[in-house]
Design goal:
The complex is a heterodimer. By secondary structure, chain A is α/β, with parallel strands linked by helices. In chain A, 23% of the residues lie in helices and 25% in strands. Chain A has helices spanning 25-34, 53-56, 113-117, 120-127, 168-171, 173-178, 230-237, 277-280, 299-305, 328-348, 396-415, 485-502, and strands spanning 2-4, 14-21, 41-44, 62-64, 89-90, 154-161, 182-186, 189-195, 202-208, 214-224, 255-258, 261-270, 283-286, 289-297, 310-315, 357-364, 373-380, 386-391, 419-422, 437-438, 443-445, 469-471. The longest helix of chain A is centred in the last third of the chain and has 21 residues, at 328-348. The two termini of chain A are 28 Å apart. Helices cover 66% and strands 6% of the residues of chain B. Chain B has a two-stranded antiparallel ribbon. The longest helix of chain B is centred in the N-terminal third of the chain and has 18 residues, at 9-26. The chains are: A alpha/beta, B mainly alpha. Chain A binds chain B through residues 269-273, 356, 407, 410-412, 414-417, 419-424, and chain B through 28, 30-32, 36-38, 101, 104-109, 111, 113, 115, 117-122.
Chain lengths: 506, 136
């Protein structure tokens, strides 16, 4: 059921089995998965059922780093979270994303790839992504063109799309609203996580509306699921016992923040008479669903070149990068426009078959960087809480990766006879970072690790030093690969839900 | 052999023109610098002779970028050391085209790449263009 805290009056103690803070893709997945009839679940949403300007303003923060969008514009603070702006693109993380790559400091996960893949089929279902493989060979279409590159150099990747993109707020509204065991509190802003005197056990959270109506929510277990920046921010803000915040004994909360930069560069010209429709027209419809063929340098060659993971595709020169605006109404228009552009891209691929000029769009993994971090600023929001400050940083590996991909592609285009490439990229000119587009994928900040000296949550996503606080969402990712995070963290939410059902809290 | 071709001036000139024209068909300087041709056969080669300026343009850029160290003969000698040496004036258009393409692909595989105006081109293709420029 939904309860709008603005209209809620009760003197009863609000006690639940599980309290999930945040009703985006992670929070909704957890709530619906834990909803087996035996548990009373509180799902706390800062916003309403739709985006509202004053709530969205709570995302305002201070940003330092390469040119980026306003922080209040990059997440959606309403039921369903940022899936309201989701394009639906999905692919699982790569197996080698989970391993330690010795040329990428702090890379690797403390859980195995198979731990993720076990939950991908159900995560696909929840996200509305059609099941199927993620290689070109998994597409069964007699008219499918060949992938033309040498597999030793480049691997094909299939991006599958939830189509239309599944906006969790709309799609799961009835399921949550009609549930007797899930109570979704709207306009319920968590203003404090209250612990015992050793900060090892969470007793309750303070909740407030923007109008100042306050209540407390008690639960046996708590899950933070409010996004890549807010998860860290709430842990840092909860400093009543430990000045550094919860789970921050080793100064790890907020660190290793990562995004997925897009970089468009270079000019690809296809030779006269050469048809490579798998590259020049990479979008296919599979019944009602859409797929796109991308490629990346093979795992072996990535190791040889000591570069980051990435994906790439030939982009028509006039497809814009995403640059969101801070105004919600405008954002909706922008997003609607982008969605129609995506649709148009699929519809018009056949019309573009004779295009011979493209740019190369590379979607980059960012290297985990301890100094790329979220901290608290002195400025306060409308609830009196310190705003987040994001210092987003690159390492040298990102530029090295762009350079390597372009050079390898230029050679591959030549040795396959497909065409030639002009490379304009200069990694020594740091201004390239200001020309990036962004996938608006926030990862890290509360990274998963075996040790509290190097991470914030353990391999079960439990915050170090606590016995009943977990974190869900891509903020737990130690490395983010090139893959879109939503389906991946939904899979990890399924894993977490399974774990939470087994944990006994005394 | 290319060195033997050099001996006979007339056949050399005819061969080089043909080679350069085939380069226009086979090579990507034409896609990079705007020529619009694609076909096989000698009729096309003759037609392409009219568009040789684009090829020469590339060739001249390469000659400038190498500070004038290349002469007609040094280019021929360096090309002789590639699989192009299997070509002679008796080679037909198909054979010439296939051989040039093969050598160019090998250049990219072996990293024999020349960067002109930020374009990544095969060393052989730009040398052929330079040859065409010098043969003008």
């Amino acid at each position: 059921m939904f309860i709008d805290l603005n209209d809620f009056n009760s003197n009863e103690k609000l006690q639940f089995d599980i309290c999930i803070i945040g009703a985006g893709a992670a929070g909704i997945t957890l709530a619906k998965t834990l909803n087996d009839g035996n548990l009373q679940i509180a799902l706390l949403e800062s916003g309403g059922l739709n985006a509202e300007g004053d709530t969205q303003a709570l995302y305002e923060g201070i940003y330092t780093g390469p040119e980026y969008m306003p922080l209040k514009a990059v997440r959606l603070r309403a039921f369903g979270g940022t899936t309201g702006y989701w394009g639906g693109q999905s692919i699982p993380l790569d197996e080698f994303d989970f391993t330690y790559r010795d040329w990428i400091p702090n890379s690797g996960w403390p859980i195995s790839y198979s731990e993720l893949m076990k939950y991908i089929p159900e995560a696909s279902n929840i996200c509305g992504v059609p099941l199927g493989g993620y290689q070109w060979s998994s597409i069964h279409d007699n008219n499918k063109p060949e992938f033309p590159f040498n597999p030793h150099n480049f691997n094909d990747l299939i991006m599958r799309f939830s189509s239309p993109p599944r906006h969790f707020g709309e799609y799961y509204r009835d399921e949550v609203g009609q549930s007797k065991n899930i109570t979704c509190f709207l306009h319920a802003n968590v203003t404090g996580i209250i612990t015992n005197e050793t900060a090892s056990h969470i007793s309750h959270v303070n909740v407030s509306t923007l109008d100042g109506k306050k209540t407390d929510i008690y639960a046996k277990k708590f899950v933070l699921a409010c996004g890549g920046i807010e998860n860290s921010r709430l842990l840092l803000l909860s400093n009543q016992v430990n000045p550094a915040g919860i789970g921050n004994e080793y100064d790890q909360v907020g660190r290793y923040f990562m995004e997925h930069p897009n970089f468009d560069s270079g000019l690809i010209k296809i030779s006269d008479g050469v048809k490579v429709t798998s590259l020049t027209n990479p979008r296919l419809r599979q019944g009602a669903h859409r797929v796109r063929l991308d490629f990346r340098i093979s795992e072996k060659e990535q190791k040889q070149l000591s570069i980051l993971n990435h994906s790439a595709f030939f982009a028509p020169k006039d497809i814009p990068q995403i640059h969101m605006h801070s105004d919600i109404g405008f954002m909706d228009k922008v997003w609607n426009k982008l969605e129609s552009l995506y649709e148009k891209a699929f519809e018009s691929d056949s019309e573009n078959i004779n295009n011979t000029e493209f740019t190369l769009r590379i979607r980059l993994e960012q290297a985990p960087n301890k100094n790329s971090r979220i901290t608290l600023n002195r400025d306060k929001d409308a609830l009196g809480l310190q705003k987040a400050q994001l210092d987003l940083r690159f390492t040298d590996l990102e530029g090295k990766t762009i350079e390597a991909v372009q050079e390898k592609l230029a050679r591959e285009l030549g040795n396959t006879g497909i065409g030639r490439m002009r490379i304009d990229f200069d990694p020594t000119d740091s201004n390239w970072k200001n020309q990036c587009g962004w996938q608006v994928h926030h990862s890290g900040g509360t990274r998963m690790h075996k040790s509290p000296k190097h991470g914030v949550v353990d391999p079960n996503s439990k915050v170090f030093g606590t016995d009943n606080l977990w974190v869900a969402g891509s903020s737990i990712f130690p490395t983010s690969g090139h893959a879109n995070p939503t389906m991946n963290f939904v899979a990890l939410c399924l894993r977490l839900a399974e774990h939470l059902k087994t944990v006994k809290i005394v | 052999m290319i060195t033997e071709i050099c001996v006979a001036n007339e056949s050399r000139r005819r061969f080089l023109k043909s080679l350069a024209a085939l380069a226009a068909i086979c090579l990507s300087p034409k896609i990079v610098y705007g020529m619009k041709t694609s076909a096989n056969g000698w009729q096309t080669i003759l037609r392409n002779l009219a568009e040789i300026e684009s090829i020469r343009n590339i060739g001249n850029k390469y000659l400038v970028s190498t500070n004038g160290i290349h002469s007609f003969n040094t280019l021929l000698i360096s090309l002789k050391n590639t699989n192009l040496s299997s070509l002679d004036e008796n080679s037909d258009a198909h054979e010439i085209s296939a051989t040039i393409n093969k050598v160019i692909r090998e250049d990219f595989i072996n990293n024999n790449v020349v960067i002109l105006d930020n374009w990544w081109l095969s060393e052989t293709e730009v040398k052929l263009c330079a040859l065409a420029a010098l043969a003008a």
